[in-house]
Amino acid sequence: MQAGSNTDNITLRIAEIMIDELKLEDVTPETFDPDMDLVDEVGIDSMDLATVALVLRDEYAVRIDEDDYPKLTTIRLIATYIQDKLDSAAA
Amino acid sequence: MSHQRVEQPASGSASEPLQYKFADLIADPVVRDRWEQVRRYFFLRESTYDMTRRCNIRCNGCYYYEGEKQHAVENSDLEQWRRLMQAEKARGITFVVLAGAEPSLVPERCQVCFDEIPLGAIATNGLKRIPGEIGYRLHISVWGDDETSYRTRGAKEMLVRQTDNYRSDPRAIFVYTFTPDNIDQAETVTRLLAREGCQVTFNMFSAPVGYTGDLRHTPNSLSRTRQAMLDLMVRYPQTVVYSRYNAVAHTHRLGLHDLYGCSYPRRNPSTDVGLGRSFRQYRTDLGWDREAACCVPDTDCSDCRHYAAGSAVVTARLFRHATDPDTFRSWLDYVDTYLAVWVRDYPRGANLSQNLVSPPGFDLI
């Protein structure tokens, strides 16, 4: 599988987790814009992000460092972050 | 007491071997229920407001009369206070803390705040009763027995007057601030409050910037305070609102910033997600200064062990505490305590952890 499609899968899964954990309404994983700003447009905060990070840690065994939260402003950026860590671990 | 250190993965590690998944940590139905209960309050977003420059007593080590904020010109226009609250609500603030110097002297301003943002707390010395229509949680400060209060605060029979005002008032919780001088008085005060049917939680004296008085804690007084807190929790379980992890976090040799990284703007230059982005500390002129904004401005950050600071700082460190069952339970106890202290009618549960757990990455003391 190509890295790009892996990242797409991760992106979709993050959207699913966010919708489920944060009980977001009026959006589905398929319609969740991966480039939407999570803070300014979706309205999540650091505790929401920590909650999602814990579920992602379970799923991918990847730690999202608290210091990195500020730069993870979209689902796509989180997916790329996870993919990069998975690639580093596999290398 | 047995204690297991938890190794923290290095920052930036590619992946981590998981000893416990988060799903494991919340697998116990009791823990899961508590997690679900506390997370319902993750919507709380706080800011704090100095209400007036006036106070009816003068206390040794008072934070309000340190620094520049005491010189702000007081705004008494209720419509401007109302507009401020409306603007705060519009930018996402859901919880207000009314403080400095003594909010009970300006109940009409407190009422305006309550009308616009109904979740919040008022820090008061308790000598003048705040009208019942103002439904905020009330934090009534206690700095020792009446003899000590008279010596350090210049007011006679404070406990009698405070309990006369607030016994049986569901809004009220007494906040006993431990100094090196009043540790041995905490039992007497707690017993009295228990007899009156009051609740009490604990605070730690934290030195204001430049403070040269004798109330700054020492390693010995921190250790004695921790033991006193733990003893009082056991002796007065219906009265004391506290957890073992609260005691550890607030009596550690290191202050809260060193242990957890303070997330208030004064120590957090970030303008991104979280408190660093949303928190403001307004002065009586309704202005605020990002460089000075924290829950108790003009505290010496290296000595900060304030209960108010910990309520935000420790609580925000969810990820660090999701390492093993006992650390996570301890964090849940801390959050449960925080919500019980700050949110009126919050249904607090029994503490989940019976152990002393160290702050992640640090020793117990």
Automatic annotation (TrEMBL), chain A:
Residues 8-86 form the Carrier domain. Transmembrane segments: none annotated. Gene3D superfamilies: ACP-like. InterPro entries: ACP-like_sf, PP-bd_ACP. This is Carrier domain-containing protein. It comes from Desulfosarcina ovata subsp. ovata. The lineage of its organism: Bacteria, Pseudomonadati, Thermodesulfobacteriota, Desulfobacteria, Desulfobacterales.
From TrEMBL, chain B:
The keyword S-adenosyl-L-methionine applies. The keyword Membrane does not apply. Keywords: Iron, Iron-sulfur, Metal-binding, S-adenosyl-L-methionine. InterPro entries: Aldolase_TIM (IPR013785), rSAM (IPR007197), rSAM_sf (IPR058240). SUPFAM superfamilies: Radical SAM enzymes. Its cofactor is [4Fe-4S] cluster. One of its GO terms (molecular function) is metal ion binding. This is Radical SAM protein. It comes from Desulfosarcina ovata subsp. ovata.
